[in-house]
Specification:
Length: about 775
């Protein structure tokens, strides 16, 4: 026998033993499951019946307490005491307020009042005035037993059913004393039928002196008939609860002996109980059996396929390794595979000890997101596959191309001179020269490339990939569609930005940032009408750092929500110092995307107790270009809180007029680009004059920012601008200097009609 044959026989024996074990296991498991399901179904049914029996019993107990509660509505009342003890007896009052009331309101079949000597003095039977002595005599044995318990306390012969009523009367007994509020309530046999019989002392609710000696008692009889049982069953969602004379268990009906409180049998409580276990027994159990059978069949099939699976295992392992190292969309190697090959190339470079280089190039498709957003992700996938094919064609066998995900690719190349690096970049850029055909549309795309080489820029995959990424980032910052080779200055810049980011976070946490305020001057009143809050940061070692430096870093680092909230909080707190000035605060587009702006503003209004109508929130077109419907709702909600809204840097975007139509603004701020040198630029004057006319027609104020000369201030005033802001009046100053600046504002920095030379001629030329 050959080793191969022996191995096959051994394999078959193992399968036979495995099949036997699985078969025995399935039989045991099947029987266990069937037993568990059967027991669970039976147990659920038994517990459901027991639970419903307890619910019915509790409901009957509650009915006794309910009758006592109904009696208490009249019996524990000063007027009831007075009229029950009156001589002669006020039968008319008792009939109206006791007999008829309890019969019509609560359905009491009999109501009897007995005096301190237990003599019946009033009776109402079936809603009609009756002879008290005769009504009492009809059920004397029952009434005597109930009265004795109410007068002397429970003897223990009758089952207690008034516990809920007892617990609810603790406060009343504590108020009027233990001698007041005596009662007894039971289910008894009355005329051969069950009934709730209750006795309650007639005592005052306010004046305890009205009762001298033993109080009168009120007796009520409520027969437990079909309507009574239907009401109890309805409260328990048991529709067919009934009191039958004989036991019946046909059709799934459950019968329980119904006993009076003295132990006498009065029939059978019958109802159809819920049987939650039936689902298990009728449906789950057959399914389990089928499942066990199916598992057996499946096991047979599984064993038959086991041999084939063993043969396929090696092929699948190889396929899995390929899939683990390649991108599923483009078929190119993935990041993990790229790192492996890069490490091998670097190891070979060390061992060869020659002047060779290993080049790593990152390729990022410019504006790929626009394709996804406009044409859909399917078109984006098609474009990625086309780019992968173009790059594969443009590269040589010495180049290793991989896809990192999204629109990012990477190339590893081994070379001996820098000219090869330039050639590699050119080949990759030329791959994007021809347009790409995506769903019948010819799309022109470009790519940004970042390059790092070993050993110059690092000797580990992590270093090279990080430096290539930095170079790619620089290329995108410089306008895209270019190749950038990493240099030390790039890393220093990244480190510097990172350092600024960390220090900015620390400064924000330590509240070291502060606000300066630049005045806004009213043209009509020739005074400071408001101020604009501007964030400032004075670094302890680097000195003042411009917002133009740290704000973009904060946006990239995700600090803008916290930074914006900090500015709002500080500005709101300092606004209270100038009750006659408006305070303008800039809002970043990031605050609209990442912060519940409306909720934050509501909290700050309450926290600082400020009038929102004095605060102008300035937004740029960058806010309006993103999610227009959502931002419109946010702006309307902010306006609803009472804030004013200003459109900042008006005229710098391509669709500003549409925003004036779509959004409601209180002010328009003309960008400084239109203000600088205005006295020498007729076209700029014409544009500003048109903006002023448009703004006034829409009920908006016009603010010109960046006013730096007297001539610019005068021209803006003559063109009809509402307010001015700029260095001509004042730079941004600390909050402590605002009061002095407002008081010292005079005509020498005003905007009154003092025309510079040549302005009259320009104005005449403009009007002509």
């Amino acid at each position: 026998m050959t080793p191969s044959s022996a191995k096959t026989i051994h394999y078959r024996n193992d399968l036979r033993r495995l099949t036997g074990l699985i078969g025995v296991g399935l039989v045991v498991l099947g029987l266990t499951l069937v037993g568990i399901v059967a027991y669970a179904g039976w147990s659920s049914n038994v517990k459901a019946v027991e639970r419903e029996r307890q619910l019915v019993e509790n409901a009957l107990d509650q009915s006794v307490s309910r009758v006592l509660d109904q009696q208490k509505a009249i019996a524990w009342w000063d007027d009831a005491v007075i009229n029950a003890q009156s001589r002669p007896l006020n039968v008319e009052w008792l009939e109206t307020n006791v007999g008829v009331y309890f019969y019509e309101t609560y359905g009491h079949d009999e109501v009897i009042i007995v005096d301190a000597q237990n003599r019946p003095i009033y009776a109402n039977v079936g809603g009609a005035l009756s002879d008290p002595a005769a009504a009492y005599a009809n059920h004397r044995a029952v009434f005597d037993q109930i009265i004795t318990e109410a007068r002397a306390g429970a003897s223990g012969e009758l089952r207690r059913r008034d516990r809920a009523f007892v617990e609810s009367q603790g406060n009343y007994s504590a108020l009027l004393g233990a001698s007041f509020g005596r009662w007894a309530g039971h289910i008894m046999r009355v005329d051969g039928e069950p009934a709730v019989v209750a006795a309650l002392s007639i005592v005052p609710n306010l004046d305890a002196t009205l009762v001298q000696g033993e109080p009168h008692l009120m007796l009520s009889v409520v027969r437990i008939d079909a309507d009574f049982m239907a009401e109890v069953g309805g409260s328990l969602l048991i529709d067919d609860l009934a009191l039958a004379t004989s036991s019946s268990r046909s059709g799934g009906v459950n019968s329980e002996v119904f006993r009076a409180d003295d132990g006498a049998e009065m029939g059978y409580l019958s109802w159809t109980p819920r049987r939650p276990g039936q689902t298990l027994l009728l449906f789950i159990l057959p399914l389990v059996a089928l499942g066990v059978l199916g598992a057996g069949v499946f096991t047979v099939l599984m064993v038959q396929r086991l041999k084939r699976a063993t043969v396929d295992l090696a092929d699948r392992e190889e396929l899995s390794r390929h899939q683990a190292l390649h991108d599923s969309l483009s078929g190119l190697p993935n990041r993990h595979h790229f790192v492996e090959r890069l490490q091998e190339a670097l190891d070979g470079l060390v061992q060869s000890r020659n002047n060779g280089r290993v080049v790593v190039a990152y390729i990022d498709v410019d504006r790929f997101k626009d394709v996804n957003d406009t044409m859909g992700h399917a078109a984006g996938d098609t474009l990625i596959m086309a780019v992968a094919e173009r790059l594969r064609t443009a590269l040589t066998s010495e180049d290793f191309l991989a896809r990192f995900g999204g629109d990012e690719f990477a190339v590893m190349h081994r070379s001996c001179d820098l000219q090869a690096v330039e050639n590699l970049c050119e080949r990759m850029r030329h791959a994007f020269d021809a347009p790409f055909d995506v769903y019948g549309q010819h799309i022109r795309m470009t790519a940004s490339i970042g390059v790092a080489t070993a050993p110059e820029h690092g000797f580990s995959p992590q270093e090279l990939m990080r430096h290539a990424d930095i170079a790619l980032y620089q290329g995108k910052n410089q306008g895209r569609d270019r190749a950038m080779v990493f240099c030390a200055e790039m890393a220093a810049e990244v480190e510097q930005r990172r350092e600024v980011e960390l220090e900015l976070q620390a400064a924000l946490d330590a509240e070291e940032l502060y606000l300066h305020y630049q005045p806004v001057v009213s043209c009509t009143q020739n005074r400071v009408a408001g101020v604009e809050a501007l964030l400032r940061w004075s670094h302890p070692t680097k000195g003042p750092i411009s917002p133009a430096v740290f704000v973009p870093i904060a946006e990239e680092a995700g600090l803008m929500p916290a930074l914006g909230a900090y500015v709002l909080d500080r500005a709101f707190a300092e606004t209270k110092r100038w009750p006659d000035l408006e305070v303008s605060i800039n809002l970043s587009p990031v605050q609209f995307r990442h912060v519940d702006l409306v909720e934050l503003l509501e909290q700050l209004i309450v926290k600082h107790n400020v009038d929102p109508s004095r605060i102008v929130l300035e937004v740029t077109e960058g806010v309006l270009m993103e999610s227009t419907d959502r931002n419109r709702q946010i702006l309307e909600a902010v306006r609803g809180l009472g804030f004013k809204i200003a459109l900042d840097d008006f005229g710098t975007g391509y669709s500003s007029l549409r925003y004036l139509s779509d959004f409601r603004f209180d002010k328009i701020k003309i960008d400084r680009a239109f203000v600088t040198g205005i006295q020498e630029r007729k076209r700029a004057m014409t544009i500003i004059q048109s903006v002023v006319t448009l703004g006034r027609g829409l009920g908006m104020g016009i603010v010109a920012e960046g006013v730096e000369t007297e001539a610019e201030a005068s021209v803006m005033r003559l063109l009809g601008v509402s307010e001015l802001q700029g260095f001509w009046f004042s730079a941004a100053v600390a909050a402590d200097e605002i009061d002095g600046l407002v008081e010292g504002f005079g005509a020498e920095k005003g905007v009154e009609a003092r025309e510079p030379a040549g302005l009259a001629a320009l104005r005449a030329k403009l009007s002509g």
